[in-house]
Every structure is written in C-alpha cells, then in structure tokens.
C-alpha cells in the first residue's frame, strides 16, 4: 500500500491548483451572482485537456487515469464548483459513456470533439417523474426501422443550454421495463429538440441547468449506444464513474472551505488573540481536517478501483456518500468560523455551503447511494 501520490499526480495537482487560482478565482463571486456560465474558463480548461482527461489520446484525450481526474476535479472544486461539475459531467458521464460503449463511428464523430472541449456534452436521465426512480422513464424512443422518434421531457440537466451533444435515455419498449430502455446521442441542432428555461438554483449557479423537451426528434439508428435495451445498464455503469467525479467535487468544496476557515482563524482576533488559539475554533479545524482526510481515502480508493479494473459501483457510492456529507458539514462549520463575515459573499464560504448541498443530490441522492451500498453488501 502506498499513500504517496506519484510525481505525475503531484504535477497534475499543481497544474489544476494554479489554474483554479489564476483563472477561476477572479470572477467566481460575480458568476455565482449573475448565474453566468463560465464560457471563457471552459474554453481554457479544454485547451489544458481537463475536459477529456481519461480519453485515449487517439480520440484527442489525455490518456490519464481516474485518480488524475479525481485530483483535478478536487482542485478545481476548491475554488469553483460550477466549473468542476462541467468537467465532471463531460469527462465521466459523456466522454466515458461514449468511449466505453460507443461504436468507432460514434467515437470519431462525437468523442474527438468532446475530449478536446471543442464541444460540450450533457447526460439526460432525470425526468419530472424519474429522478431517484430512474427506471420509470416516460420519454419514449419509438423504433421506426432506420431511426427512432424521441418524445418527452428531461429535467435538471447540467450543461443543458451549453452542450452540443446530449446522451439521452428513453423507453423504447414499455413491456420490457428497464430492459426496454435505450441510450442515444442527440445533437442540439436537430429538429424538435428544445432547450427549456434555465433553473434559478441555490448553488453551483455558474453551471447551466435546464429542462429539455423532445418533440418528435428523429434519431438515426446509428446513434443508439450499445445493443437494443442496453440503455438502463449503460446509465448505471456510467453513473458509477460519474459518482467518483462528484465525490471528488464534494471533497474539493470541503477542502477549499477548510483552508479558508484555517487561514481566517489565523488572522481574525477575538478576546485578545487570533481565534485559532481558542480551543473552540482549533477543535473545529481538527474535526474538519479529519473528516476531509477520511473522505479523501474513499475517493482516491474508488478511483484506484476503476484504474485497476475492480468493480467500483460500491466504492464510488461510498465515496460520494461520505464526501458529500463531509462537504456539507465542513462548509457549515467554515461559515461558523468566519462568524458574521461567513454570511457575506465576499468571503466565499457561504457560496461553498450552498454549492455543497447539490453533491448530496445529483448523480444519485445520499439515500440512493445507501441502496447501492447495501445491495452490494447483501449480494455476495
Ligand atoms: N451496473 C450494471 N447494471 C446495473 C447496475 C450497475 N451499476 N445497477 C443496476 N443495474 C442493473 C440491474 O442488474 C438490473 O438489471 P437485471 O434486472 O438485468 O439484473 C437493472 O439494472 C435494474 O436494476 P435495479 O433492479 O437495481 O433497479 P431499481 O429500480 O431498483 O433502481 C437504483 C436502482 C440504483 C435505485 C437506480 O435507479 C439509481 O441509481 N437511481 C438514481 C439515478 C441517478 O443517479 N440519477 C442521477 C441523474 S444524472 C445527473 O445527476 C447528472 C448531472 O447532471 C450532474
């Protein structure tokens, strides 16, 4: 067992850390206030290779491991969780989904653009009546021979307005239940596809979340991913990797808030001394650090499982469950350490507290992670 990061991982961590400080920190408060999508920042992340980190270089990706990806998402999230969710969805849901299960033609046509950041992707599973209960898909994909016709609505879609390509999950044969579900690559410009209004959110306000409507959208058969009926398993398998990304995001939010609380406690004075000299504050820092470290081991272990060809359904669920709870707890405490200033936007921690909440909800709520973990335990 080796707890040390390799030279390569340290270099990647430092590159992401510098980028986050130099390119994401300026303007992060304004983007949150205005709900402004970080167009320029996404472009730069694409140039740095952050949008297709694990993709094979022959498709324009970085050919890196899942641990590198988790480290980058963690570092970006310390500063701007709106940017890191864009990175996470593009890498581990969209790029991974196409690379692992798509055809060579799909990879050449779509993955090469998604991996370089020339195009952005979105993953469309959730619906008004199918959030946690993901098998209850109401969006239909009727088989017309050489094409499918898509109809329905998708909700809370990250990158909903800014994406170019959408992975859409839909029901082809209701009789077959989850075995009658398919996944498709849909292009934004296709007739009948409509981006609905942008959501006004509590957190990750720089990311762009929309409802999407599909009205008789004609999807060529070659845009189906995998065999007929593979769509639900495709979504589940892809989400297991996505959860490593969201776990890393939660870890980064917690880490960023902790560092701010620690630094603030060294300069803010009360009762004649810096507040870190009061045990009430020092113990909070100790608890925050301890929990972050515990979460980090689970997140990195899950990435390691993926890199080593182990099943990571359970470990990614455990990482996400733990890290998202730590993100919530640590950010609340970081606001507390900052006192009145913690309630003010200028000090960042209130935004981090708002951003943390979504990590307990998207890519499977904490309750869903417990289903995945308990079923994994009881299966054997
Ligand atoms: N890998 C492969 N197959 C899997 C699987 C996995 N990880 N998990 C389940 N399956 C298979 C099962 O084996 C079963 O197939 P068989 O019947 O052939 O054996 C089939 O899928 C159905 O599984 P279940 O019977 O377990 O289905 P369920 O209805 O009980 O639901 C669930 C399972 C885990 C609760 C699932 O519905 C789930 O994960 N829900 C949460 C959905 C979610 O995470 N949504 C996030 C939206 S995307 C998002 O947030 C992205 C973003 O924008 C940030």
- Going by CATH, the homologous superfamily of the largest domain would be Butyryl-CoA Dehydrogenase, subunit A, domain 3
CATH architecture of the largest domain: Up-down Bundle
DSSP E strands, number: 10
* CATH level-1 class of the largest domain: Mainly Alpha
Number of domains: 3
Order of helices and strands: HHHHHHEEEEEEEEHEEHHHH
Q: What is the overall pLDDT average?
A: 98
- Characterize the overall form: globular
Q: What ions, cofactors and ligands are bound?
A: acetoacetyl-coenzyme A
Cross-sheet strand order for the largest sheet: 1-4-5-8
* Cα gyration radius (Å): 21 Å
The largest β sheet comes out as: 4 strands, mixed
Count of helix runs: 11
Question: What low-confidence regions span 5 or more consecutive residues with pLDDT below 50?
Answer: none
The CATH topology of the largest domain turns out to be: Butyryl-CoA Dehydrogenase, subunit A, domain 3
Work out the strand percent: 15-25%
Give the terminus-to-terminus CA distance.
25 Å
């Amino acid at each position: 067992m080796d707890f040390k990061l390799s030279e390569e991982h340290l270099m990647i961590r430092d590159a992401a850390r510098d980028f986050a400080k130099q390119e994401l920190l300026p303007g992060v408060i304004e983007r949150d206030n205005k709900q402004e999508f970080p167009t320029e920042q996404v472009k730069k992340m694409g140039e740095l290779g952050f949008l297709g980190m694990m993709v094979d270089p022959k498709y324009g990706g970085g050919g890196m491991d899942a641990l590198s990806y988790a480290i980058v998402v963690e570092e970006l999230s310390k500063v701007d969780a709106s940017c890191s969710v864009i990175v996470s969805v593009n890498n581990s849901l969209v790029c991974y989904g196409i690379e692992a299960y798509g055809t060579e033609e799909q990879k050449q046509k779509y993955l090469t653009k998604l991996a370089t950041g020339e195009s952005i992707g979105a993953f469309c599973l959730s619906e008004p009546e199918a959030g946690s209960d993901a098998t209850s898909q109401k969006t239909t994909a009727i088989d017309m021979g050489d094409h499918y016709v898509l109809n329905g609505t998708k909700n809370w879609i990250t990158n909903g307005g800014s994406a170019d390509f959408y992975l859409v999950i839909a029901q082809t044969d209701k009789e077959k239940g989850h075995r009658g579900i398919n996944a498709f690559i849909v292009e934004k410009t296709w007739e009948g596809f409509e981006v609905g209004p942008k959501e006004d959110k509590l957190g990750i306000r720089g990311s762009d979340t929309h409802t999407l409507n599909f009205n008789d959208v004609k999807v060529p058969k070659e845009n189906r991913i995998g065999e007929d009926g593979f769509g639900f398993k495709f979504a589940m398998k892809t989400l297991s990797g996505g959860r490593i990304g969201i776990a890393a995001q939660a870890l980064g939010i917690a880490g960023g808030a902790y560092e701010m609380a620690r630094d603030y406690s060294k300069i803010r004075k009360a009762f004649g001394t810096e507040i870190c000299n009061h045990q009430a504050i020092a113990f909070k820092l100790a608890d925050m650090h301890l929990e972050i470290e515990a979460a980090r081991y689970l997140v990195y272990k899950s990435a390691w499982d993926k890199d080593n060809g182990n099943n990571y359904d359970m470990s990614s669920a455990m990482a996400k469950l733990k890290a998202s709870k730590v993100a919530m707890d640590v950010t609340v405490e970081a606001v507390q350490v900052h006192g009145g200033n913690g309630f003010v936007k200028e000090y960042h921690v209130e935004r981090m507290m708002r951003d943390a909440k979504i990590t307990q909800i998207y890519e499977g709520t904490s309750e869903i992670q417990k289903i995945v973990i308990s079923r994994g335990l009881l299966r054997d």
